[in-house]
Amino acid sequence: MADCIFCKIANKEIPSSIVYEDEQVVAFKDLEPQAPVHVLVIPKKHIESILALTAEDAELVAHVFTEVLPKLARDLGVAEKGFRVVANTGEEGGQSVKHLHFHLLGGRSMQWPPG
Ligand code: DGP
Known about the structure:
The chain has a 5-stranded antiparallel sheet with strand order 1-2-3-5-4, covered by helices on one side. It has 3 helices and 5 strands; from the N terminus they run H-E-E-E-H-E-H-E. By secondary structure, it is an alpha+beta fold. The model has no long low-confidence stretch (mean pLDDT 98). 24% of the residues lie in helices and 22% in strands. It is globular. Bound molecules: 2'-deoxyguanosine-5'-monophosphate. The site of 2'-deoxyguanosine-5'-monophosphate has 13 residues, from strand 2.
């Protein structure tokens, strides 16, 4: 989608530190890391948020959660000690980029509740 920063990252129109890529998703380091490990997993196709997911996206979501996130957690060395996956959604959810993304955070002790 035009003017979507994450579409531009997925299309390599702007640079990012990509740590994983396949046909459906890209994972790259967050520009403002909130933990020693902080990557974002995004679908290559533009989906605004969790609220815009449809049944057609079920395979994509399953792929992210059963393959991509566990692989990244292991590869980035946070699987054993633990990590957090966050999808900020909408204004009060703290979503600043309107392209679905899953934050994978780890490498430090997480607090609860989040701010
Ligand atoms: P959220 O607030 O949940 O929408 O998270 C958006 C995240 O995206 C935020 O942690 C900062 C990150 N971010 C924003 N713009 C860029 C960018 O151009 N490159 C990278 N690598 N990360 C970005």
